[in-house]
Amino acid sequence: MNEPEKIRLSKLMSAQGLCSRREADTYIERGWVFVDGVQVSELGSKAYPTQKITLNKAAQESQQARVTILLHKPMGYVSGQAEDGHKPAAMLFTADTRYAGDTVPMQYHPLQSKGMAPAGRLDIDSTGLLVLTQDGRIAKQLIGENSPIDKEYLVRVQGSLSEKNLALLNHGLPLDGAPLKPAQVSWQNQDQLRFVLQEGKKRQIRRMCEMVGLKVVGLKRVRIGKVMLGDLPPGQWRYLRAGERF
């Protein structure tokens, strides 16, 4: 019987949801990682998938200090880095734009912006819920290749939609040469569709609608996993609450 193969420790830590691979390397360098109770501090170290990996208190405290915010992105802002003269949504993370109804006792500090990145994209002409985080675990959970977390959108459209094409929106359309995962698409009201997707290809909903003869005139993300946009006003943000899980 063949022995199981050892895997790079940082890769194992990421796969187990302990942290991102980059964070894992930092923790290993600092001596914050233990494999079966033995401290590991050498980069590139490997372990068996069956071995127990734990983090010391310093690593756990470091993770707890990482900030995640929920932003209601308005139109005209890009999700990631500034491009083509458009402003990044992250610039809305300021003391002045914090939602007055935020119940988290944490104080805002400009240093919280360091290392904060969007966990997923939202087109420049789309609005709604955008997650920005310093926590690699949350980023991996939301944008990992096999992420099970769905996202809900309300989409205003122009044009007519047959039952056959509605069925195609739910399942059967290809994009970029590959079949799309099954979606949940239904009429919300007379001119608005509700989309629930488990993937997020570039401009996916707009392209799906074009394929069945619809024009999107408004697109808003209202939910990511179990976290709702709720009454968060456009251009404002709040901290992810301690008990909230995607």
Q: How does the overall form come out from the CA principal axes?
A: globular
CATH class of the largest domain: Alpha Beta
Instruction: Output the CATH topology of the largest domain.
Output: Alpha-Beta Plaits
Q: Indicate how many domains the architecture comprises.
A: 3
CATH architecture of the largest domain: 2-Layer Sandwich
Q: What is the residue-averaged pLDDT?
A: 91
Name the helicity range. 10-25%
Number of strands: 18
Which blocks of ≥5 consecutive residues have pLDDT under 50? none
Structural class designation: alpha+beta
Strand content: 25-35%
From the alpha-carbon coordinates, what is the Rg to the nearest angstrom? 21 Å
